Amino acid sequence: MPLRRPPLLALLFALFAALTVGRPASAGGETTPPPGIGAPPEVDFSSLPASAAVRKPGPDGKPHQVLARLIADRDAVVPGGHFRLGVHLTQDEGWHTYWKSPGEVGKPTVIDWQGPDGVTFSQYEFPVPTRMEESGVVSYGYDDQVLLFADVQLPDDLPLGTATFGATAEARWLVCKTQCIPGEAELTLTLPVVEEDPGPNRFAPLFDYYALTHPVSPTEVTAFTVQGALNVQAVPADSEFKAALLFTPTGDQPVTIDTSHGGYPLFSPIVTPGWMLMGPPEITQLPTGAVRIELSGYALGSDPLPSDEKFGGLFQARVGDEWVRTEMTFPLPVTAAGSPPP
């Protein structure tokens, strides 16, 4: 069902749509990459089949700004085994695609995996993003290239011999430079099924590199805690609300906090589809060493009401000599529009 928005918000969303498809979005501005992450390893993609390397022409007949590839970390697979399968996007210079929570402009890349019966795919992770700001408009995404991959588990009864494993990824993204252009690709990769695992191939170092750029589970973090709270127990749809996050260093190791770029890299907001930020986060460093982050949001109306909305963010802090990165989110209950806040 369509979202119900007040007239002013409807106008703002109409303007947003005009700005993000085929219109100016960013012409440079300030780009802040995530700290402590070097350049990815160089990889030779020349041996990929044409079905696994796609750059579709745009409406004007020119090549699209993104080259999409489907790669695996094995050249062959075994029954009952597992491997990594990923969509690698290479953007033309100056263009970028987006993180899971893209900010004020953009849309996250969406991948639908397919494979033979009995094959399972894990949820793909987004690497920590670069922060991009142009004329006060902030977004989060990737310059140059990015790899989004899933762990693939194969069934024990996958046939041997001449049988092959095929996987298709339908990838959709929005790429922006001075304008934003949607893109998509249908990618297919066929792998032989053999008795013995051949081991990692030439693409494995690229998977290993991007695996290290994934946030760790909050349960693995002991150097700091994050608490979240709302100004109400539940937020009525079509209404504003306030949320607060408290980042507190713990443990014996020194924690270095950097909020110099609008809160980044310490904090990048995670916004789910049922609400929107009404302004930049307000960051306050407290005398205790903790950091308070205040968010102003607007819960969008929908039918049915959203049931799994969350607020929170990606947190990055230097702990001793290493960077720790994790995503922490908290429930955002939404009630019917017009109902009094509990």
Overall mean pLDDT? 87
**Do you know the CATH topology of the largest domain?**
Immunoglobulin-like
Identify low-pLDDT runs: 1-27, 162-166
What count of helical segments does DSSP give?
2
Number of domains: 2
Instruction: List how many beta strands DSSP finds.
Output: 23
The class by helix and strand makeup works out as mainly beta
How many angstroms does the end-to-end distance come to?
26 Å
Task: Give the name of the CATH superfamily of the largest domain.
Answer: Thiol:disulfide interchange protein DsbD, N-terminal domain
Report strand order across the widest sheet: 2-3-4-10-7
Strand % is: 35-45%
CATH class of the largest domain: Mainly Beta
Largest sheet: 5 strands, antiparallel
Shape: globular
Order of helices and strands: HEEEEEEEEEEEEHEEEEEEEEEEE
Helix content: under 10%
Alpha-carbon Rg, integer: 22 Å
- Supply the CATH architecture of the largest domain: Sandwich
What can you see in these coordinates?
The chain is mainly beta. The chain folds into 2 domains: 33-211, Thiol:disulfide interchange protein DsbD, N-terminal domain (Immunoglobulin-like); 218-335, Immunoglobulin-like (Sandwich). 6% of the residues lie in helices and 44% in strands. It is built from 2 helices and 23 strands. It has helices at 7-20, 204-211; strands at 30-32, 53-54, 66-72, 82-91, 96-103, 110-114, 120-121, 130-134, 137-143, 145-153, 164-176, 180-192, 224-230, 235-236, 239-249, 255-256, 267-271, 275-277, 282-285, 291-299, 310-319, 322-331, 334-335. A 5-stranded antiparallel β-sheet has the order 2-3-4-10-7. The longest helix is centred in the first third of the chain and has 14 residues, at 7-20. The model is unreliable at 1-27 and 162-166 (pLDDT under 50).
